[in-house]
Amino acid sequence: MEPNGQPKPVHEAPVSSGARRITVLRPAVVFSDGAAQPRVAVVVHSNILGAVRARIDTYEADLEAAGFTAVRVVYADGSAADVRDVLKGLYDEAGALAGAVLVGNIPHIIYEQMQDWDGEGGAPAQYEDYPCDLFYMDLDGTWTDCTSNGLVQPANGKYDTRAGNLDLEIWVCRIKTDTLPAQGGEAALVAGYFEKNHRYRSKELATERRALVYNDDDWACIAGADAANASMLYESSAITIVASNEQTTVPDYKQNGMAASYELVSLRSHGYYAGHGFYSDDRSQFGFVYPADYRALQPRALFYSLFVCSGADFTRDNYLAGSISMNSGDAGLVCWGSTKTGGMFNEFPFYQELSMQTVVGEAFRQWFNYMQATLDQPTCETWLYGMALIGDAAAIPAAHTPEPAAGILASAGMVLVRRRMARG
Questions:
Q1: Which residues contact 181 (CB under 8 A, 6 or more apart)?
Q2: pLDDT digits (tens, 9 = 90+) for 259-308
Q3: Which of 51, 65, 193, 318 makes the best surface tag, with the fewest CB within 10 Å?
């Protein structure tokens, strides 16, 4: 049951439906130097392709201009496993697959787990299930539904175990609008998003090269580390930090955060799929910022790091990350956040990659693989398996790229491991 009293929706089981209609349209591209460009699969649901074909054509041309080869994959039906097989086939071919952009209601899988939040086994383990797009990014790992552990049960239509090589081979992002009924029709929103994205790529849509670090009370202690990471993309004088307990409030965020012109917003606050909020009055009050506020105020920021529990759960109506990134006008472009409790932390590798003009998706892939190699598996699974990219992850924040400051990694450090960072 969700905070608003609604039941959780039913999700697709990880068993192939037996019906598979997924068509790969290969571009006839010849490279004069004999070398292939990295490829991006644009996976489009057939039920909206007719209405957005011109926008998809433009997007694929934009990818080509950015140094990628676009491969269109038209999805009609089939399971998430079918889609993964297609992506793996493209990855295994000559000319590596760098990533995939899922456009429309492309299927997803559900992962379930029992999780120990205090890390010491003192409190009872808690059950959680959630959509997990890592399934598409890990192309050679083994995903199974075989564990019996409390509420986690085998053969119940939810994956619960990963094994083998756990590194992510590609990045995957979603442009999913059928769950945004408050913003309009699915195809119109997709078309509008790609029009906005094209204007960004054509440098017609730009914001001030500024960043906002907005950490509510439980994360005020790491605001300096967050700003240090952002300084790999922006001048220190162009980074605003708001982390005072009585300053991080709903009115301040709306009036000074959402109303100002930033390119990147790094946000840490409690919340759920339909909003995030802030403590005030010595933590006696807690107020929410809702997707409707983003729609009404249309903040100019284009890139959002959302450390907000379940803020990227694309299966929920009017989900936060979709409401932000698929906003109309000049508002929003790309969000990274979690479909479950938890979120992104220790982001030094992520921002370091961005500072070298790496696309958001590849920076995410490098960061996740670093975290898997650094953390123990239960901690990684508990905190990071819900991470998702909403919007065009082949985009790059257009900021200056100074050399990273020495010691940022140490200062950001293993903050969560040391003090078990408060959950979103």
A1: 317, 318
A2: 999 999 999 999 999 999 999 999 999 999 999 999 999 999 999 999 99
A3: 65
- The percent of the chain in helix, strand and coil, each rounded to the nearest 5, is 30, 25, 45
- Output the CA torsion sign for 105, 107, 112, 116: negative
300 in Cβ contact with 262 (< 8 Å): yes
Distance, CA of 329 to CA of 183 (rounded, Å): 12
By CB neighbour count within 10 A (0-12 exposed, 13-18 middle, 19+ buried), where does 362 fall? buried
Measured CA to CA, the distance from residue 336 to residue 132 in angstroms comes to 13
Q: Which two tokens stand for residue 360?
A: 């958001």
C-alpha 299/C-alpha 91 separation (Å) is 37
The span from the CA of 196 to the CA of 73, in Å, is 22
pTM over 0.85: yes
For the chain, the domains span 110-163, 207-419
pLDDT of residue 124: 87
Q: How does the average pLDDT of the chain come out, rounded?
A: 88
